[in-house]
Design a protein that fits this description.
mainly alpha; 8 helices; NADH_UbQ_OxRdtase; oxidoreductase; NADH-ubiquinone oxidoreductase chain 4; ND/Mrp_TM
C-alpha cells in the first residue's frame, strides 16, 4: 500500500498547476518510501528511513522557502504564470536547481543514500518491488525537472518585468538548508549509523 501510494502521489505531482501543492504531494510521495522501509523492520530499512526523513525534511523545507520567495514577488503560485524567473533572479535559479537535484536524489546527495538503503531493503523483501520503486524514482525525476523548468525557464510575462530583488536573508535561509545536506554527505554516519 505504501508503494502504491508513492505511484499515486507522484502521478498527482505531474498534473499539478499549483507550486506549493506540487511540493506538498512530493513530500507525501517520499514519505511513502519511508513508510515502506519502516514496515520492513530491517536495520537497513530503518537506517534508510531515518536518512531520508532528515534529508527530505531539509529539501522540502528549502523548496517551500523557494516557492515563498516566488510568491512574495509575483503573488501567484500558478506554474503557467510564473515562468522565466531565471532571467531576473539568476542566483535564486541556482538555488532552485540545487534543491531540485537534491529532491530527485542525484548523486552525491544524502537523499540518494537514504533511497538506496530503502530500495535495497524492499528488493530483499520482495524482488518485484524494484519495478514500483523504479517507476516512482522516474516519476520523481520527471516532476522535479518539470517544477524547475516551469518556474525558471521560458519567456517571462510582461507583468513580471519589474520585480523587487531577492534579499540576503532569503539566500541565508537556503544556505542553512543546503549546507547541512552537503555536510551530511561528508559524514553520513551521523544519521545512517543509528541502526546498523
Amino acid at each position: 500500500l505504501a508503494l502504491w501510494g508513492i505511484l499515486m502521489t507522484s502521478s498527482i505531482c505531474l498534473r499539478q498547476t499549483d507550486l506549493k501543492a506540487l511540493i506538498a504531494y512530493s513530500s507525501v510521495s517520499h514519505m511513502g518510501l519511508v513508510t515502506a522501509a519502516i514496515i520492513a523492520q530491517t536495520p537497513w530499512g530503518l537506517t534508510g528511513a531515518m536518512t531520508l526523513m532528515i534529508a527530505h525534511g531539509l529539501t522540502s523545507s528549502a523548496l517551500f522557502a523557494l516557492a515563498n520567495t516566488n510568491y512574495e514577488r509575483t503573488h501567484t503560485r500558478t506554474l503557467l504564470l510564473v515562468r522565466g524567473l531565471q532571467l531576473i533572479f539568476p542566483l535564486m535559479s541556482t538555488w532552485w536547481l540545487l534543491t531540485n537535484l537534491t529532491n530527485m536524489a542525484m548523486p552525491p546527495t544524502i537523499n540518494l543514500l537514504g533511497e538506496l538503503f530503502i530500495i535495497s531493503t524492499l528488493f530483499n523483501w520482495s524482488s518485484p518491488t524494484i519495478v514500483i520503486t523504479g517507476i516512482g524514482t522516474l516519476i520523481t525525476a520527471t516532476y522535479s525537472l518539470y517544477m524547475f523548468l516551469m518556474t525558471q525557464r521560458g519567456s517571462i510575462s510582461t507583468q513580471f518585468r519589474l520585480l523587487p530583488p531577492t534579499h540576503t536573508r532569503e539566500h541565508l535561509t537556503l544556505v542553512l538548508h543546503l549546507l547541512p545536506l552537503g555536510l551530511l554527505i561528508m559524514k553520513p554516519a551521523l544519521i545512517s549509523g543509528l541502526f546498523t
